[in-house]
Amino acid sequence: FAFLPVDRDSEAYNMNHVKRGKACIFNHENFNPNLDLKPRAGTSKDRDNLYMRLRELDFDVTYFNDLTFNELNTEIIKLASEDHSEHDCVLVALMSHGDDGILYAKDQQYKPEKLWSHFTSDQCPTLAGKPKLFFIQACQGDRLDAGTTMLPRVTETDSPSAVAYKIPTHADFLIAYSTVPGFYSWRNTTNGSWFVQALCYVLSERGREDDLLSLMTTVSRIVSIGFESNTPQDS
């Protein structure tokens, strides 16, 4: 059993706990030679920027550099095993190389699900009914997106709102990738990745005003504009 921190019919999460919550940043720049992966120049800029933005939003932030898979898995299990009763949420950010369906630790590849599988409500009951946020900056393939020329149009989107009752064990997860399956994710060797740059900017400017999905929609918009200005145009 788990105690839900918000009423069943509430349209918003309870973000008034004693603490905002724990945030862990896993930053991978260098890899073992046998993996034949180039160093991820610029990723320390992402790490530092995200660390500061999350601190500004009252997260208790820890970062780790170049962990092996066993070390990373140990830290994930440790985080999931903590008592989060007084926390609003939990956040994990991962910056590394990747491919379609895989991520890389310092010494080996692994499935992305390893990052969040320990945080389901049956394994981590003190996070039941609370946001569990995962941000992944990594490629998911080697293709380039040629883009689509868009004409002005007004659109609307609808999304459903989220006594004892059951909730799915994978409820309340938000998993944000820097790119879609099969495609590159862009990183500037000086300023960091487009995705993390945009995320940090939006958290800094609107992190205390807007809801999370609105924030992520803005992040996506900023990345797409950067994409437009850096993608070769057909002649």
Automatic annotation (TrEMBL):
GO terms for cellular component:
cytoplasm
What's one Pfam family the UniProt record gives for this protein?
Peptidase_C14
Ranges for domain Caspase family p10 come to: 163-235
Q: Which InterPro entries match?
A: Caspase-like_dom_sf (IPR029030), Caspase_cys_AS (IPR033139), Caspase_his_AS (IPR016129), Pept_C14 (IPR002398), Pept_C14_caspase (IPR011600), Pept_C14_p10 (IPR002138), Pept_C14_p20 (IPR001309), Pept_C14A (IPR015917)
The Caspase family p20 domain covers: 19-143
Q: Name one GO biological process term.
A: positive regulation of neuron apoptotic process
The parts of the chain that form a coiled coil are none
Give the UniProt keywords, A-Z: Apoptosis, Hydrolase, Protease, Thiol protease, Zymogen
Recorded superkingdom: Eukaryota
**GO terms for molecular function, please?**
BIR domain binding; cysteine-type endopeptidase activity
Gene3D superfamilies assigned to the protein according to its UniProt record, in alphabetical order: 3.40.50.1460
UniProt keyword Protease present: yes
* Similarity comment text for this entry: Belongs to the peptidase C14A family.
The name this protein carries in UniProt is Caspase 1
Species for this entry = Daphnia arenata
